[in-house]
From TrEMBL:
<dbReference type="InterPro" id="IPR021729">
    <property type="entry name" value="DUF3298"/>
</dbReference>
<feature type="transmembrane region" description="Helical">
    <location>
        <begin position="53"/>
        <end position="71"/>
    </location>
</feature>
<protein>
    <submittedName>
        <fullName>Anti-sigma factor</fullName>
    </submittedName>
</protein>
<keyword id="KW-0812">Transmembrane</keyword>
<dbReference type="Pfam" id="PF11738">
    <property type="entry name" value="DUF3298"/>
</dbReference>
<feature type="domain" description="DUF3298">
    <location>
        <begin position="196"/>
        <end position="280"/>
    </location>
</feature>
<keyword id="KW-0472">Membrane</keyword>
<keyword id="KW-1133">Transmembrane helix</keyword>
<dbReference type="InterPro" id="IPR037126">
    <property type="entry name" value="PdaC/RsiV-like_sf"/>
</dbReference>
Amino acid sequence: MKDFVKTVIRNFSKQYRQQTLPEDLHTQVTNLFHKEKKKYSWRRFRNRATQSALALALTFILAVNLFPGVGEAASVLPGFDKLVQLVTLQTLTAKKEASEIAIDVPKIETATPTKVATALNKKYLKEAQAEFQQVKKQFFDGSRVSVTGDFEKVVDDSRFLVVKRTLTQIQGSSATTTQYDTIDKKLNIVVSLPLIFKNEDYLSVISEEIKQQMNEQMKADTNQIYWSEAADQPTDVQPFKQIKPNQTFYINAKHQLIITFAQGEIAPYYMGTPEFVIPTKIIKQQLASPNYLSN
């Protein structure tokens, strides 16, 4: 079994050194894993210990792709500049009687152009234009609506850049949506939850931590209300059970994982957009690299 694992790692390493670093690291590594696995007879390795060894080998290769210093190619990976400017590309505006729209479109500017910055800038403009056109249609059906969109740079250090976009719509009542993009400057990638965790175990681990924080907050302050699984919760709401693989999140200045929820998703609207700080020690064993979130 040890020889098998060594062979898998050796073959992966050989293929890795012979190719340029892919843009979609997670997909590339997974494809290589399945390709290599087909070369061996799975019937000889059905026991649980061997399957764990395969998972360990995959984690090792994923770490080579993700973290500087593990693989030689990582040391030459082009990344973001240490200082990044976040400017307004343009403001989409329209006004008719009592209705108006003003959406600021962000643009990431770096001294050296990167594919990630270019892709994000295109996404920001496309999504802003789509929202602008959608709201503008309401001007002609008699609705009175006010929409404002802005952005801010939440984190900008030597490792991460976090861009927050906020859209507020007032139409009788007020509703706010927030979106985050976390960019790993060293690896020049947009971070996602499935990318930085070994497997889907993080979903239940993080969810249980959030449930505990919900209960603690409600006990400490009666004005804090979440849709929990408690017996005294309203029957017409869906209680929070588990986060989604594509759950909104960002990494803060302390390099802690912050899980966020949309307004009204897990709590009454007056609670805004709830956020939960996940202690790194809680998820360290689930991370593809235990030290990924260290300062």
